[in-house]
């Protein structure tokens, strides 16, 4: 084990990447635990675990959303896998700003302590992750809980910005001269595009919540309607950040999925240029559709028509990616754990996308706004899509870093339990939401009790799958079974350049990159070198 003192001073990208993954996993488990408390409360009629405390229920919702978005998926897919894979995929020994990398890592636990404190100080921050006025103003939350919540967002935002700047500069300025951007992994492209999005939208959120703080403590009235402010202004500012945030979460998963299919299939990615343009198009169009979250604010008809049409437009580049994945999956055997997880990702992402097309219609959205239909939709796209991508990334990188493998039979069982469990949680939400069940309520009508039971059963299955996965990864590491060096592990620069010890720096790649070709294949010298690392 690496001591905290070593972690405090380290500038090693591999070690920082592993620390990001460990921290993100721990924070994600804490956020998942909060969702378990919510599901237990909703499993029966009347008061259950929370004794009818609606404020505590809202606090759990708020903390759950923040932890899963800002503390789990974003740092894991961007800074975690990014630090481990980006330098090696580009053929560079380190990230370009190692000390900034270390700073971003240690801002994470600081922000986590602040957000947990905000949940227990006074009545807790029960504003939901959107922090809408007037609920977030002093008249509704007068204590320090919302202030700590906002400071936590600033801290985790700085962490995300430091990682984004590091990723962009590393990709632009340190890659080898004969590696053009069209020849690097699609995961590199996804990280760069996501980094640009972060740099553009995080300052907007920072400004919006800073104005909220001044409304609470400095007698300004940006959002306070009683003093002439406009709460809808905050919604515009928040969703200018919030909708690109959706793609900040999912674009690295897109890149990871494409990279895994490519390496497991030992062939060139299908429609590489189209996949790159699709990701860029998704990111660009995502800046112009923010107000489809605000159809119920009294928007005029022309604006509703525009935002509905622009939202539907995003389906075009997304479809390009989905069909490209399907073409590549036809050429890959569904026998490996990572490919099964990628297949599960494509399934749940398609389901989430179909339900999103329904919500793009402004008239339907007004009816379904703030119902469980919306909860089911964005969990299919973000929660399940990101979760499957994260687990696939862990299974992909674990053998490369540790030199050990897991048991395929148990892997398949775990994946099937996960697939059934996640769909059992969120598919019934579409049905109950279409029936009018509002979200953020700690009790339901008795007509929805059967759906709540199915959802609760699903979360138990997900817990079982997570436990199986953790047990297998831990056992495989301790057993130290040697990895088989077949073609799955020699078709990418990452596997060729990564040393057996994940905590040591990457070897200088000049002597190895001469074997790199546009087809991503290597000579026997590279294969023998990779074999020597695991002997």
From TrEMBL:
A cellular-component GO term for this protein: mitochondrial inner membrane
Pathway: Energy metabolism; oxidative phosphorylation
PROSITE patterns: COX1, COX1_CUB
A GO biological process held by the record: electron transport coupled proton transport
Enzyme Commission (EC) number: 7.1.1.9
InterPro entries, per database record: Cyt_c_oxase-like_su1_dom (IPR023616), Cyt_c_oxase-like_su1_sf (IPR036927), Cyt_C_Oxase_1 (IPR000883), Cyt_c_Oxase_su1_BS (IPR023615)
Domain of life: Eukaryota
Key word Transmembrane helix present: yes
Domain Cytochrome oxidase subunit I profile residue range list: 3-486
Subcellular location, record wording: Membrane; Mitochondrion inner membrane
Entry keyword annotation includes Transport: yes
Membrane association type: Multi-pass membrane protein
Reactions mediated catalytically: 4 Fe(II)-[cytochrome c] + O2 + 8 H(+)(in) = 4 Fe(III)-[cytochrome c] + 2 H2O + 4 H(+)(out)
Bilayer-spanning residue ranges: 58-91, 103-121, 148-172, 184-213, 233-261, 273-293, 305-327, 339-360, 380-397, 409-427, 447-473
GO MF term list: cytochrome-c oxidase activity; heme binding; metal ion binding; oxidoreductase activity
Keywords tagged on the record: Copper, Electron transport, Heme, Iron, Membrane, Metal-binding, Mitochondrion, Mitochondrion inner membrane, Oxidoreductase, Respiratory chain, Transmembrane, Transmembrane helix, Transport
PANTHER family according to UniProt: CYTOCHROME C OXIDASE SUBUNIT 1
Family as reported in the entry's similarity comment: Belongs to the heme-copper respiratory oxidase family.
Function: Component of the cytochrome c oxidase, the last enzyme in the mitochondrial electron transport chain which drives oxidative phosphorylation. The respiratory chain contains 3 multisubunit complexes succinate dehydrogenase (complex II, CII), ubiquinol-cytochrome c oxidoreductase (cytochrome b-c1 complex, complex III, CIII) and cytochrome c oxidase (complex IV, CIV), that cooperate to transfer electrons derived from NADH and succinate to molecular oxygen, creating an electrochemical gradient over the inner membrane that drives transmembrane transport and the ATP synthase.
Protein's UniProt name: Cytochrome c oxidase subunit 1
UniProt lineage: Eukaryota, Discoba, Euglenozoa, Diplonemea, Diplonemidae
């Amino acid at each position: 084990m690496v001591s905290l003192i070593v972690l405090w001073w380290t500038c090693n990208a591999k070690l920082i990447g592993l620390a990001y993954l460990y921290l993100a996993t721990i924070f994600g488990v804490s956020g998942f635990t909060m969702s378990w408390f919510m599901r237990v409360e909703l499993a029966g009629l009347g008061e259950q675990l929370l004794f009818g405390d609606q404020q505590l229920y809202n606090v759990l919702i708020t903390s759950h959303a923040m932890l899963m978005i800002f503390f789990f998926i974003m740092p894991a897919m961007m800074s975690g896998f990014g630090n481990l894979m980006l330098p090696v995929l580009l053929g560079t020994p380190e990230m370009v700003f190692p000390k900034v990398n270390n700073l971003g890592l240690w801002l994470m636990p600081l922000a986590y302590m602040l957000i947990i404190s905000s949940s227990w100080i006074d009545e807790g921050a029960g504003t939901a992750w959107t922090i809408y006025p007037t609920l977030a103003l002093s008249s509704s939350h007068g204590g320090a809980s919302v202030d700590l919540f906002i400071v936590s967002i600033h801290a985790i935002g700085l962490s995300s910005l430091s990682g984004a700047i590091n990723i962009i500069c590393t990709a632009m300025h340190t890659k080898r001269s004969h590696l053009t951007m069209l020849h690097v992994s699609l995961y590199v492209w996804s990280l760069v595009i996501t980094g640009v999005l972060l740099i553009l939208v995080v300052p907007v959120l920072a400004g919006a919540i800073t104005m909220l703080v001044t409304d609470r403590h400095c007698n300004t009235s940006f959002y306070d309607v009683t003093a002439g402010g406009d709460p809808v202004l905050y919604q515009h500012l928040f969703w200018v950040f919030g909708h690109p945030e959706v793609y900040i979460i999912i674009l690295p998963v897109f890149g990871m999925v494409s990279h895994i299919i490519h390496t497991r299939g030992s062939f060139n990615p299908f429609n590489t240029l189209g996949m790159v343009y699709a990701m860029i198009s998704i990111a660009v169009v995502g800046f112009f559709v923010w107000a489809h979250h605000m159809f119920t604010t009294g928007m005029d008809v022309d604006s509703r028509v525009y935002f509905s049409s622009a939202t539907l437009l995003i389906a075009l580049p997304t479809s390009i990616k989905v069909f490209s994945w399907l073409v590549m999956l036809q050429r890959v055997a569904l026998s490996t754990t990572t490919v099964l997880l990628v297949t599960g990702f494509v399934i749940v992402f398609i389901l989430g996308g179909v339900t999103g097309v329904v919500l793009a219609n402004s008239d339907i959205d007004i009816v379904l706004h703030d119902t469980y239909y919306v909860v089911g939709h964005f969990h299919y796209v973000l929660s399940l899509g990101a979760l499957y991508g994260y687990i696939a990334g862990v299974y992909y990188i674990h053998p490369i870093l540790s030199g050990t493998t897991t048991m395929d039979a148990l892997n398949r069982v775990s994946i099937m339990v996960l697939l059934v469990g996640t769909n059992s949680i969120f598919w019934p939400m579409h049905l109950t939401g279409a029936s009018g069940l509002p979200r953020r309520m700690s009790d339901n009508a008795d007509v929805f009790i059967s759906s709540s039971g199915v959802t609760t059963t699903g979360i138990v299955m997900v817990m079982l799958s997570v436990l199986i996965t953790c047990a297998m990864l831990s056992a495989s590491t301790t057993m130290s079974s040697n990895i088989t060096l077949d073609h799955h592990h020699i078709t990418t620069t990452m596997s060729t350049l990564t040393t057996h010890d994940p905590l040591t720096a990457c070897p200088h790649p000049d002597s190895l990159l001469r074997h790199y070709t546009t087809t991503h294949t290597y000579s026997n010298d590279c294969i023998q070198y990779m074999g020597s690392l695991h002997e």
